[in-house]
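pls ignore typos typing on phone
glutathione + seq
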Amino acid sequence: MKLIASPTSPFSRKVRIVAAEKHIEYELVVDAPWESDSKVSDYNPLGKVPVWVFEDGKTLFDSRVIVEYLDSVSPVGHLIPTDPRARIAVKRCEALADGIVDAAVLTYLERKRPEVQQSQDWIDHQLGKVRAGLAAMSHEMGMANWCVGDSYTLADIATGCALGYLDFRFPELDWRRSQPHLSEYFDRIVQRPTFKDTVPVA
Ligand SMILES: N[C@@H](CCC(=O)N[C@@H](CS)C(=O)NCC(=O)O)C(=O)O
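k done
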């Protein structure tokens, strides 16, 4: 099996962490979907990473589908609870974290366009979602040790990847100052080897 991924993509990082936590082996194929020689569209009509490729050539996308599959195929350390309420709480946290990343990625891409074509209104609109998403993330977590319940789940992986992406691409947002508990929590989860092994590099 192969994972087509970009080393800077937080969605790819989420899948890599889940696969590592579950001890699932695969071949990592690095592909940057923005490059003209990218082959990602051959595997995902939406042209986005990550993509999971099975031995028979069939594929899975997007990251939420892939991680759900990976969690279900290995009994090692369940990351998505089976209890319906806990399960949907984890998926909701993942949606919030992924939504923050979606808005952050759109902001990053807008800022990469030639300056005259950039829309400050669009950037502000997206950054508003990032800030509101962070505030909700922090509020919902309160002073708890984990995003959902009393153990490490997919919600923590998605949250950690979102916060790591903000540190990587938006250090000027300085989210840690307004979210001190989230900051302590983040410092704790990034000590996990699976987070350390997947730190984004430009
Ligand atoms: N919802 C998708 C989002 C994936 C996504 O936006 N990936 C970005 C990289 S971080 C990408 O490949 N973008 C290429 C493009 O939009 O053309 C997922 O969870 O997999």
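The pocket of glutathione is lined by residues 6, 9, 11, 33, 47-50, 62-64, 98, 105 (CB under 6 Å). The chain has a mean pLDDT of 97. more later
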